[in-house]
Specification:
alpha/beta, 7-stranded mixed β-sheet, 8 helices, about 40% helix, globular
Length: about 240
Protein backbone atom coordinates (compact mmCIF):
# COMPACT_ATOMS: atom_id res chain seq x y z
CA UNK A 1 0.00 0.00 0.00
CA UNK A 2 1.70 3.22 -1.14
CA UNK A 3 1.72 6.22 1.21
CA UNK A 4 2.65 8.93 -1.27
CA UNK A 5 3.19 12.65 -0.88
CA UNK A 6 3.90 14.22 -4.26
CA UNK A 7 5.90 17.41 -4.67
CA UNK A 8 7.58 19.09 -7.62
CA UNK A 9 11.05 19.10 -6.08
CA UNK A 10 12.05 15.69 -7.38
CA UNK A 11 10.59 14.76 -10.78
CA UNK A 12 11.09 10.98 -10.81
CA UNK A 13 8.37 10.09 -8.32
CA UNK A 14 7.16 7.10 -10.36
CA UNK A 15 10.64 5.57 -10.45
CA UNK A 16 11.46 6.18 -6.79
CA UNK A 17 8.07 4.84 -5.74
CA UNK A 18 8.60 1.70 -7.81
CA UNK A 19 11.98 1.13 -6.17
CA UNK A 20 10.46 1.78 -2.74
CA UNK A 21 7.76 -0.84 -3.37
CA UNK A 22 10.35 -3.33 -4.66
CA UNK A 23 12.61 -2.73 -1.67
CA UNK A 24 9.83 -3.12 0.89
CA UNK A 25 8.71 -6.36 -0.75
CA UNK A 26 12.16 -7.90 -0.51
CA UNK A 27 13.70 -6.44 2.64
CA UNK A 28 10.67 -6.56 4.91
CA UNK A 29 7.64 -8.41 3.57
CA UNK A 30 9.73 -11.40 2.44
CA UNK A 31 11.90 -11.42 5.54
CA UNK A 32 11.20 -14.34 7.90
CA UNK A 33 9.69 -13.09 11.13
CA UNK A 34 9.46 -9.48 9.93
CA UNK A 35 8.18 -7.17 12.64
CA UNK A 36 5.85 -5.35 12.76
CA UNK A 37 3.68 -7.70 10.67
CA UNK A 38 2.53 -6.16 7.41
CA UNK A 39 -1.15 -6.60 8.29
CA UNK A 40 -0.60 -4.58 11.47
CA UNK A 41 1.19 -1.83 9.53
CA UNK A 42 -1.71 -1.67 7.09
CA UNK A 43 -4.24 -1.41 9.92
CA UNK A 44 -2.20 1.30 11.62
CA UNK A 45 -2.07 3.31 8.41
CA UNK A 46 -5.81 2.78 7.83
CA UNK A 47 -6.51 4.05 11.35
CA UNK A 48 -4.39 7.11 10.65
CA UNK A 49 -6.35 7.86 7.48
CA UNK A 50 -9.72 7.20 9.16
CA UNK A 51 -8.84 9.69 11.89
CA UNK A 52 -8.13 12.39 9.31
CA UNK A 53 -4.50 12.65 10.32
CA UNK A 54 -1.93 14.17 7.93
CA UNK A 55 -0.01 11.84 5.63
CA UNK A 56 3.38 12.69 7.09
CA UNK A 57 4.49 9.41 8.69
CA UNK A 58 7.73 7.80 7.58
CA UNK A 59 7.57 5.45 4.60
CA UNK A 60 7.81 1.69 5.03
CA UNK A 61 11.49 1.64 4.07
CA UNK A 62 12.31 4.61 6.29
CA UNK A 63 10.63 2.78 9.15
CA UNK A 64 12.76 -0.28 8.47
CA UNK A 65 15.85 1.95 8.35
CA UNK A 66 15.01 3.25 11.82
CA UNK A 67 14.55 -0.28 13.07
CA UNK A 68 17.95 -1.29 11.69
CA UNK A 69 19.58 1.69 13.44
CA UNK A 70 17.97 0.61 16.70
CA UNK A 71 19.27 -2.92 16.19
CA UNK A 72 22.78 -1.67 15.42
CA UNK A 73 22.66 0.28 18.69
CA UNK A 74 21.11 -2.69 20.52
CA UNK A 75 18.66 -0.07 21.71
CA UNK A 76 16.91 -0.68 25.00
CA UNK A 77 15.68 2.90 25.36
CA UNK A 78 14.48 4.97 22.40
CA UNK A 79 13.25 8.57 22.42
CA UNK A 80 10.93 9.88 19.71
CA UNK A 81 9.65 13.39 19.04
CA UNK A 82 6.40 13.30 17.06
CA UNK A 83 4.29 10.17 17.55
CA UNK A 84 1.52 10.84 15.01
CA UNK A 85 -0.29 7.47 14.69
CA UNK A 86 2.71 5.49 15.91
CA UNK A 87 3.92 4.11 12.57
CA UNK A 88 7.62 4.85 13.14
CA UNK A 89 7.25 3.98 16.82
CA UNK A 90 6.16 0.45 15.96
CA UNK A 91 9.18 -0.15 13.76
CA UNK A 92 11.56 0.99 16.49
CA UNK A 93 9.93 -0.85 19.38
CA UNK A 94 10.26 -4.09 17.40
CA UNK A 95 14.05 -3.68 17.11
CA UNK A 96 14.57 -6.09 20.01
CA UNK A 97 12.23 -7.79 22.48
CA UNK A 98 13.66 -5.51 25.19
CA UNK A 99 13.34 -2.21 23.32
CA UNK A 100 11.20 0.44 24.99
CA UNK A 101 10.15 3.71 23.36
CA UNK A 102 9.30 7.04 24.97
CA UNK A 103 7.44 9.10 22.39
CA UNK A 104 6.29 12.73 22.62
CA UNK A 105 3.09 14.00 20.97
CA UNK A 106 1.54 17.46 21.21
CA UNK A 107 -1.87 16.54 19.75
CA UNK A 108 -4.08 14.59 22.19
CA UNK A 109 -6.23 13.22 19.36
CA UNK A 110 -3.15 11.82 17.62
CA UNK A 111 -1.96 10.33 20.91
CA UNK A 112 -5.31 8.58 21.33
CA UNK A 113 -5.05 6.99 17.88
CA UNK A 114 -1.46 5.95 18.59
CA UNK A 115 -2.44 4.30 21.87
CA UNK A 116 -5.08 2.24 20.09
CA UNK A 117 -2.53 1.23 17.47
CA UNK A 118 -0.03 0.16 20.12
CA UNK A 119 -2.71 -1.96 21.77
CA UNK A 120 -3.53 -3.45 18.38
CA UNK A 121 0.13 -4.37 17.88
CA UNK A 122 0.33 -5.74 21.44
CA UNK A 123 3.30 -3.56 22.39
CA UNK A 124 1.57 -0.91 24.51
CA UNK A 125 3.43 -2.12 27.60
CA UNK A 126 6.75 -1.10 26.03
CA UNK A 127 5.71 2.35 24.79
CA UNK A 128 5.21 5.50 26.88
CA UNK A 129 3.43 8.46 25.28
CA UNK A 130 4.20 11.84 26.83
CA UNK A 131 1.63 14.43 25.77
CA UNK A 132 2.30 18.16 25.50
CA UNK A 133 4.44 20.72 23.70
CA UNK A 134 7.72 19.10 22.82
CA UNK A 135 9.87 21.84 24.31
CA UNK A 136 8.01 21.61 27.62
CA UNK A 137 7.94 17.82 27.76
CA UNK A 138 11.62 17.40 26.94
CA UNK A 139 12.61 20.00 29.54
CA UNK A 140 10.80 17.96 32.22
CA UNK A 141 12.30 14.76 30.82
CA UNK A 142 15.79 16.22 31.17
CA UNK A 143 15.06 17.14 34.79
CA UNK A 144 13.97 13.56 35.44
CA UNK A 145 17.11 12.30 33.68
CA UNK A 146 19.37 14.35 35.93
CA UNK A 147 17.37 13.10 38.93
CA UNK A 148 18.10 9.51 37.89
CA UNK A 149 14.49 8.77 36.94
CA UNK A 150 15.18 8.28 33.21
CA UNK A 151 17.64 5.82 31.67
CA UNK A 152 20.10 7.10 29.02
CA UNK A 153 18.74 6.80 25.51
CA UNK A 154 20.36 4.64 22.84
CA UNK A 155 18.53 6.10 19.83
CA UNK A 156 16.56 9.32 19.32
CA UNK A 157 14.32 10.05 16.33
CA UNK A 158 13.24 13.69 15.91
CA UNK A 159 10.27 14.18 13.60
CA UNK A 160 8.26 17.04 15.07
CA UNK A 161 8.00 20.82 14.62
CA UNK A 162 11.11 21.84 12.72
CA UNK A 163 11.62 25.20 14.39
CA UNK A 164 12.43 23.37 17.65
CA UNK A 165 14.87 20.91 16.07
CA UNK A 166 17.90 22.22 17.92
CA UNK A 167 16.18 22.24 21.31
CA UNK A 168 15.14 18.63 20.81
CA UNK A 169 18.57 17.65 19.52
CA UNK A 170 20.48 19.34 22.34
CA UNK A 171 18.30 17.80 25.04
CA UNK A 172 18.47 14.38 23.38
CA UNK A 173 22.26 14.45 23.24
CA UNK A 174 22.40 15.34 26.93
CA UNK A 175 20.23 12.31 27.73
CA UNK A 176 22.08 9.89 25.44
CA UNK A 177 24.87 7.43 26.19
CA UNK A 178 28.17 7.52 24.35
CA UNK A 179 27.68 5.78 21.00
CA UNK A 180 23.97 6.64 20.84
CA UNK A 181 22.37 7.58 17.53
CA UNK A 182 20.37 10.79 17.04
CA UNK A 183 18.38 11.20 13.81
CA UNK A 184 16.51 14.32 12.64
CA UNK A 185 14.00 13.75 9.84
CA UNK A 186 12.83 16.01 6.96
CA UNK A 187 16.07 17.93 7.19
CA UNK A 188 16.78 18.65 3.52
CA UNK A 189 13.32 19.93 2.63
CA UNK A 190 12.71 22.08 5.69
CA UNK A 191 9.61 20.11 6.61
CA UNK A 192 7.40 20.84 3.62
CA UNK A 193 8.56 24.44 3.18
CA UNK A 194 11.16 23.79 0.48
CA UNK A 195 14.83 22.88 0.02
CA UNK A 196 17.00 24.38 2.73
CA UNK A 197 19.48 25.85 0.24
CA UNK A 198 16.98 27.77 -1.91
CA UNK A 199 17.37 31.54 -1.29
CA UNK A 200 13.60 31.99 -1.43
CA UNK A 201 13.19 29.63 1.53
CA UNK A 202 15.68 31.22 3.93
CA UNK A 203 13.08 33.08 6.00
CA UNK A 204 10.72 30.11 6.40
CA UNK A 205 10.60 29.11 10.10
CA UNK A 206 10.91 25.39 9.32
CA UNK A 207 13.93 25.98 7.09
CA UNK A 208 15.51 28.16 9.76
CA UNK A 209 15.00 25.34 12.26
CA UNK A 210 16.53 22.76 9.94
CA UNK A 211 19.55 24.87 9.08
CA UNK A 212 20.09 25.68 12.74
CA UNK A 213 20.30 22.05 13.83
CA UNK A 214 22.52 21.11 10.86
CA UNK A 215 24.98 23.92 11.49
CA UNK A 216 25.05 23.54 15.26
CA UNK A 217 25.31 19.75 15.14
CA UNK A 218 28.18 20.02 12.67
CA UNK A 219 30.07 22.25 15.12
CA UNK A 220 29.06 20.29 18.23
CA UNK A 221 32.03 18.49 19.87
CA UNK A 222 29.62 16.06 21.52
CA UNK A 223 28.65 14.36 18.25
CA UNK A 224 29.84 13.27 14.82
CA UNK A 225 27.23 14.33 12.27
CA UNK A 226 26.28 13.43 8.71
CA UNK A 227 23.49 14.57 6.39
CA UNK A 228 22.00 11.95 4.12
CA UNK A 229 19.75 13.06 1.25
CA UNK A 230 16.97 10.63 0.38
CA UNK A 231 14.48 9.89 -2.39
CA UNK A 232 11.60 7.44 -2.42
CA UNK A 233 7.84 7.13 -2.49
CA UNK A 234 7.64 10.19 -0.25
CA UNK A 235 9.83 12.15 -2.68
CA UNK A 236 13.02 14.10 -1.98
CA UNK A 237 14.19 14.81 1.56
CA UNK A 238 16.97 13.91 3.95
CA UNK A 239 18.01 12.96 7.48
CA UNK A 240 20.62 14.35 9.84
CA UNK A 241 22.25 11.27 11.37
CA UNK A 242 24.60 11.70 14.32
CA UNK A 243 26.43 9.56 16.85
CA UNK A 244 27.26 10.81 20.33
CA UNK A 245 30.98 10.66 21.03
Amino acid sequence: MSRLVYTEIWPNTALTTEVDDYAFQHVHKSSPGAQPPVDILDKVYANQVAAGMPNIAVSENQGKFLQVQCRIANAKHVLEFGTLAGYSTLYMVHATPQTKVTTIEVNPDFAQVARANFELAQVADRITILEGRGVDVVAKLLEDFHAGKVEPFDVTFIDADKISNWIYFDHAVQMSRSGAIVIVDNIARGGDSGPIVWPSMQQEPSVIGCREVIEKAGADPRVSASLLQTVGGKNYDGMLICVKL
